[in-house]
Amino acid sequence: MIKKILSVFLILFLSSILYISFFGINTDKFNQRIEKKFEENYPGIKIKLNDIKILLNISKISVDIKTDKPLILSGKEKIKLKKISTTYDLKSFFKREFAIKNLYLDSEKNEIKEIVKLLRSYKDSAQLLIADKLIQGGNTDISIKLNFDEKGQLLNDKYEILANINDLSIELFNKQKIVNVSANIKYLQNRIEIINFKSIFQEIPIYSDKILIKKNNKNYFVEGSLNNKKSTISSSLINMALKNNKFTNIVLSSKNNFNFTISNKLKISDLKFNSYLNLAKAEYEIDNLSIKKYIPDLDKKIIFLDQNIKINYNNKTLFEGSGNFQIGEKKDEINYKFENEKDRTKFDLNFKINQIPFQIDLINFSKNENEIANIKVKGEKNKKKIILNNINFEKNDDRIDFENINLSKDYHVTDFKKIYLQYLDINEIKNDISIIRNKKNSYLIKGKNFDLNKVINQILFEDTNQSKIFDDKKREFQIDFQRNKIDDSQHILNLKGNFKMKGDDVYDLSLISNFQNKDVLSMSIKTKNQQKVTTFYSEQAKPFVKKYKFIKGFEGGKLDFYSVKKNKVSQSQLKIYDFNLKELPALTKILTLASLQGIADILSGDGVSFEELEIKFKNKKNLMEIDELYAIGPAISILMDGYVQKNELISLRGTLVPATTINKFVGSIPILGDILVGKKTGEGVFGVSFKLKGPPKNIKTTVNPIKTLTPRFITRTLEKINKKN
Predict the structure, then answer these.
(1) 3, pLDDT greater than 70
(2) For residue 13, is it left (φ>0), alpha (ψ between -120 and 50) or beta?
(3) How far is Cα 51 from Cα 36, in angstroms, rounded to an integer?
(4) How big is the chain by its Cα radius of gyration, in Å?
(5) Within a 13 Å sphere around the CA of 168, how many CA atoms are in the beta-carbon half?
(6) Cα–Cα dist 704/677, whole Å
(7) Which of 12, 234, 689, 707 is the least crowded, having the fewest Cβ atoms under 10 Å away?
(8) Residue 643: which of 616, 668, 665, 670 has the closest Cα?
(9) By the 8 A CB rule, do 285 and 301 touch?
């Protein structure tokens, strides 16, 4: 009987064991104990369990325990789980040790912000606080594998966390947003792997195959890749990255590999990265439109196209690339290399120019479309200055070289070693000039042949308020030229002398040269007591007067100019002696309107000769005030005054008297009444008064006959006649 009972009991026991091993049992009897033990080990966090399923594992002498749909609670925060499972070690139970060796958690999709808040309620930290501030939305499902020691303590190097993140949005402290973040994250033994990362930042799709984060003592080592597909970069991101608002419409793709160390206070160190950029397009806005006088096709911007760029950073940045750049409708090539270390940047630029034309009017040089040219620029920049070690230009046999040009941080020349120009200008004249520093702030300008035509034009006609070139130091220049062209048909020989500058201001100058027939040309500038005195003398006036296009048919003459400038106002006097003049439209019109047709015919024929022309005038900025213009000659004499507002308005008035009237006046001074009134009808008309007024291209002329000469005209005429006698 006992044997039968034992047999039945054994069968029931084995059947129970087999049942529990294969099918398990559901119970809630252990819930309270497990929940209590969990809370003891993790204060502040509660676990809420549903029915527990128990399966016996005979081979391992353990019990597998699983529950579905449990909850993790902390304050108001709640995390939903799919299941929790663990293995209960029976041997540890009998040894009175902590019998739970591991714990597996699989979560439902939960809001990431709720998970962060739950973690903060358990154990807050600066990192969790920052995460809580930055994270705006997103969800994740998590799988966690935890391992415990015999005392129930979590083994930090024996747990694993897998998370699938979706729709995460982060708002950075500068209000920039990163949205649509998705990734698979794996945490194992102080190692975080971020796989298949995708996001959108400033409307740019960003992705990464893998980012690895390793804990190293108190810091973290981060390495991985971060790439973006071809996208248009927003202006705000350009400004943030480049600190430059001149670049617009940037379209690029990139591949970037990086590694760095980050502290628990989020301080980055030991940064290294390399990037490969394909810049499809970028526009650079030009606000200095004075460049257009050098590049005629320039339309406020330069477009960079199809640029392949490589960037490496390891304590210093190496930036190199190549591609096309476009000005107007024309494209050419550029290669570049930059090396940045701390506050110093070295650069090496190479322009291969075929399509784009450019010109340098000052030296009468141009590079036309379809002419091949090469420009190389090497230099470096630091906080205080820019050093252009070499600038080399080559086009056919033309060469322009600059050596060791030093610029201040505001782009003013502080020093240079050498400038060499050897080129064929637009008039097919070969120019050869060098400027060499022979000692500190002292330079020699010399050459066999140089065209001064454009330089003279700029002095006479261009705006004197040019951009500043030099810094404020004093410099001295010696000049030694063999031959200089000064207009289309004239040149001078043996131009020698010197000049001194303070900044861009020439305060002392002495030059002398001669024409081919030995006629003298000289110029001087002397400055004393803030007063600058300029003199210019030429025994041939024609090469300089003919540059004023409205004067045609000027022949002969000598030119004598004197000017005193103080406080940016100049008082000047110009004299021209013994010259002929014809085809002056304004004078021809006056003579015609005054019915002095005989003199008008002379002017349009062989020209009217003058013994002397004297102009007294004052210049202040763009205003020329003509105090007096007086010309006397065998045919006519003119007295005039007025003003000229550059490019805006001309206003002149004066008196024109035929020479016959003047001769009668001089020969008849004792019988003044007869001269003023005249013995016959019409005989008292001495000449004409006239006015010229209007914008430069639309000047209106009015003429009225006069019977009496002004005392001023009489005085000036007598002065000239007495001086001549």
Answers:
(1) no
(2) alpha
(3) 16
(4) 46
(5) 25
(6) 17
(7) 12
(8) 616
(9) yes
Residue 493 structure tokens: 């020989």
Terminal alpha carbon distance of the chain: 172
Maximum Cα–Cα distance for the chain, whole Å?
182
Give per-residue pLDDT as tens, 579-588.
Answer: 887 766 677 6
Q: Tell me phi and psi for residue 672, to 5 degrees.
A: -60, -35
CA pair distance 245, 614, nearest whole angstrom: 54
Phi and psi based region of residue 316 (left: phi greater than 0; alpha: psi -120 to 50; beta: remaining)? beta
Measuring CA to CA, which residue among 363, 570, 554 is closest to residue 457? 363
CA distance 78 to 524: 93
Reported as a single tens digit per residue, the pLDDT across 548-587 is 766 777 888 999 999 999 988 999 999 999 988 776 667 7
What phi and psi values does residue 36 have, to the nearest 5 degrees?
-70, -45
Q: Return the number of other C-beta atoms located less than 10 Å from residue 202's C-beta.
A: 19
- The whole-angstrom separation of Cα 7 and Cα 576 is 146
**Regarding beta strands 52-57 and 520-528, do their DSSP bridges make them parallel or antiparallel, or are they unpaired?**
unpaired
Handedness of CA 537, 540, 546, 547 (dihedral sign): negative
Neighbours of 56 (CB within 10 A): 20
Other beta carbons less than 10 A from residue 386's beta carbon: 18
Q: What pLDDT, in 10s, does the model give residues 4-51? A: 665 655 555 555 555 555 555 667 776 777 778 777 777 777 888 887
Q: Residue 254: name the closest of 194, 331, 201 by CA.
A: 201
DSSP string for residues in 307-332: EEEEEEEESSEEEEEEEEEEETTEEE
Residues 6+ apart with CB under 8 A from 658: 596, 599, 635, 636, 687
Burial level of 219, CB count in 10 A (0-12/13-18/19+)?
A: middle
Give me the DSSP letters along 17-72: HHHHHHT-EEESTTHHHHHHHHHHHSTT-EEE--PEEEEEETTTTEEEEEEES-EE
Strands 552-566, 649-658: pairing is unpaired
* Distance of alpha carbon 649 from alpha carbon 693, whole angstroms: 7
CA proximity to 211, closest of 247, 139, 259: 259
Phi, psi of 589 (to 5 degrees): -65, -40
Tokens of 724: 């001549």
Q: In percent, how much of the chain has pLDDT > 90?
A: 34
Sign of CA dihedral 593, 598, 604, 608: negative
Judged by DSSP in three states, 678 sits in coil
Write down the residue that tokens 């129930």 correspond to. Answer: 152
Contact (CB, 8 A) for 612 and 623? no
- pLDDT average, residue stretch 598-606: 59
